[in-house]
Amino acid sequence: MKITTRVILLFLVIIVSFTGFFYMFYTIKAKESRIYIDADSMQRRQAIDSFLALKQSQDLDITINLRSDSGLRRFVQTRYRQWASINLAPLIKNHDLDLVQVYGSDKRLLYGVADENNDFLADFVFDKTLLDSLSSKGHLTCVTKLNNQLLMLAGSIIHPASDTTPASVPEGFMIVGRIWNHTYLSDIGKSLNYTIRITKSLPREVEDTQTQFNTRIVRPLNDWLGNTIAWVIFYNVNPYLSELGLIGKQIQFGTFGFLLLFIFIQFVLLNYWITTPLKMISTSLRENEPNLVSPLTDKNNEFADIAILIKNFFRQKHDLIMQIEERIKTEIKFREAEEQTRKIFLTSPEAIIVTDLDGRILTVNEEALKLSRTENYQIFEQRIKNITDLASPDQTYLYEQLLDDLIKSGSIKNRELEISPQEGRPLPALISASVIYDANHVPNKLILIARDLSNLKSLESKLRQSQKMESIGTLAGGIAHDFNNIITIIAGYTALAAGKIDHSLAQNDLDEALKACLRAKSLIGKILTFSRQSEKTIRPCILANVIEDTIPMIRASIPTIIKIKTKLDVYHYVLADPNEIQQVLMNLASNAFHAMRPNGGTLSLTLEDTFGFELIGLSPAVDVQATYVHFKVSDTGVGISPEIMHMIFDPYFSTKAPTEGTGLGLSIVHGIISSYNGFITVQSHPGSGTAISIYLPIISEPEALPQPQEKSSFPFHPARILYVDDEPALSDLFGQALVNAGYQVTAFTDSQEAMQSFIHKPEVYDLMIADVTMPNIDGIKLATIIRSIRNLPIILYTGFCDYQIQKNADSIGINKLLNKPILPDELVAVVREVVAKSLISTK
Description:
By secondary structure, this protein is α+β, with helices and mostly antiparallel strands.
């Protein structure tokens, strides 16, 4: 018999036998259980309904028996309370009631008595709707809520006569009540052998339910209007049904044991019929030994056919192995050559693209995928079909011209084109290409090699930007020089006018104008701090003082729609260059202003101290033993996107338009703070503003700081002054001031004429005053020429004093180098000092 036939017959017997058995058992047991459960449920519902009806009728019988009592009617008419106390009060204890009340025909409470444990019921008055319902029905039973408790009521009308026919207008009403509390329900449950629970919320299933072991019967409790206000639920466990279920389980376990025995027998047979032959076949295949299946070839079944096939397979396998070995040797040599070519193609640092003669792309290397900003070759193949697809629409003709020139000439070198990827900006590329010929020297393919020029172009742009930044200092110095001349003229003539006018009101106005000029002078001085190329002077300084000195310049550089709030609570010393700290503040304020355009906002500057251990995790450079000054600059601007947060300190990176910034601000700030052993952190969210925190280590207060020298008063000594300035207004202004002070002044607006005058008569002059910045011969050159002729005291002034000017002035021994704007009185005081000191040195 075939193995398949045996297996089919075996499982048919199993299926038919067990299906019939389980069907018969399940049907009989299901019907038996259902009939028993239904009968038990019906009996339980009838018993509970009868019990509830009995409880309600017992209370109702009390009212019905008393409603025709002559004494009760007389009490309703006369309202003689002693009768009620004698006859009605005992009802509470005699009938285990909680409430007895009598109402008159006007529906007012005439008498009420309650159980002493529930004395709050004595003064309770029912709603008139209850009495209306009682009047229409004659008697009723219902449930009402009272102080979170359920009160079961029974009531009847009081007849005006001895008959029991309800009158059109009853003489009164009698109501008795019983509170359904836990004790009462427990007594009922013990009587019925049920667990009783009252719920005021609607159960999920209102119907009565009965499972195999548990019974639940739900009955509504209605008020006098027929509204359900609570549910009483009866629970019970049927022990007989439990025993019935236990018997069913015993039968199931017995059946399961029989099934296991039957399966074991079938397992033994299947192992003999199927498993043993399969093991022989699998061992033969695994160990490459065809003789292991020889015993199966004599059987008249499917395993014999499989054994014959295995033997044929091993014979064919041996022949195939010999052929494969020869082919492998040939392919190895071919693969070595192909692998070498593939490595050259893939690892090339240049982008390589191979196309047909029409420019359709055949293959590309990894560098080409990077150049086109494509993740993998499949995406590249979907997006870019032709070499012209790498160009932007307005430059497609350049790629077409490239293909034409390549076909004509056979190769091209170093042609600069733009590659336009699917995302991002176009990339500049240097392309070289050549034609690939087949064995017959016929053009077959094109190969293009492209080099990304982005970094080279970026370096060129940065170099141009750096050269542009170098000119900013010179430009600022020139503008400040001219502006200083104007402020000097305004302040000088204002001071002169103030000395000539006696009118008090005019004097006050001139004083205010002079104060404004002095504020402008302070502002220009702060601007020149950034334009002068002076050496870094790191010294102990109070950071709060530097910030306060910088705030006026910040205020002048940003619009008034930006509010500036400061909170500088600490005054600690740090080791820094005040000029560089001012540069940091101006850079951060400028960035905050651009972030809050055009609607404005608030720029907050706060200063506090913090301990190093509180900053662990912010930077590896934190010294946990040190104390830091925490300077925070925050704004209410647009914030910084998380995608660019890691690039904000990169040189030349900027989100501003090309005309609005250089991209060096934050990189310079980072470099300055790092040079002071400090560190900087940034917190920002798009739309929520930016907060930049700077931490600088605090140093102890220095023992001695350079103290400003006290101004000494010098006596007046007559002197002949050579005054040189190309600005006529300044020459006139300071000439008047010096003449009024008692000096002889010879003024020139041309430095060449002044030099000729001095060369002609050098002994005529005792002192020279000149501007540094003048056409033809500047002040430094003029002073050098004069000093080569005679050691004359020299005073120079300038509107822009950078490091080089200061160095040149020191090299020729200038007595005083002043910064504009200068007031006439200041110049006169300096002249008195220089003249007096020069006389002392010559004695």
